[in-house]
Design brief:
The structure is a single chain. The chain is of the alpha+beta class. Helix content is 18%, strand content 47%. It has 2 helices and 11 strands; from the N terminus they run αββββββαβββββ. It has an 11-stranded antiparallel sheet.
């Protein structure tokens, strides 16, 4: 009976602390004429887990606590927000959004609310060897549902995720 109650509690917690949305990823590379477009899912589990999985699970962007893992085109990139200031700000913003908390203030962060959407832009002040030049996250101001995530790279390249 104890195992049944424990299993039921785990299932209820998973359902209440987890959300999923469909996602379309657009990978734009200025040197190519056609953007690469794939679809997948966004999974959120409170308090600190987000996974965007596209292209049948081959490409992923995952935040698990302070660790960020990006698998793109078979290459895996890992960083930790404890060592990377850009991802520290990104982690704080994501944590605030998924937990219904106010967006933290910072020198590298701007928040604009318009037409029921909150646009959060993170542009690092220190620009040494960053994988991305900026992040832009758009969320629904009332429900905190993700609408768009754009990660800008150098030379006009970017990865854009649209959430439905």
């Amino acid at each position: 009976m104890k195992r049944f109650i424990l299993a039921l509690a785990i299932i209820i917690c998973h359902v209440t602390l987890s959300a999923a949305q469909t996602v379309t990823r657009t990978r734009h590379q200025a040197a190519l004429t056609t953007d690469a477009v794939t679809t997948g899912t966004l999974t959120i589990r409170k308090p600190d887990y987000i996974c965007i999985s596209t292209d049948g699970g081959r490409d992923q962007l995952m935040m698990d606590g302070t660790q960020f893992t990006m698998t793109l085109g078979g290459k895996k990139h890992v960083t930790d927000s404890k060592r990377n200031a850009q991802f520290a700000t990104f982690q704080k913003v994501l944590h605030a959004v998924i937990n219904g908390q106010p967006i933290p203030e910072g020198d590298d962060l701007t928040v604009v609310t318009k037409n029921g959407l909150q646009t959060i832009t993170i542009t690092p002040t220190a620009k040494k060897r960053q994988m991305f030049t900026s992040f832009m996250l758009v969320v629904d101001a009332k429900t905190a549902a993700f609408r768009q995530l754009r990660m800008n790279e150098k030379a006009g390249n970017y990865i854009n995720y649209d959430f439905k």
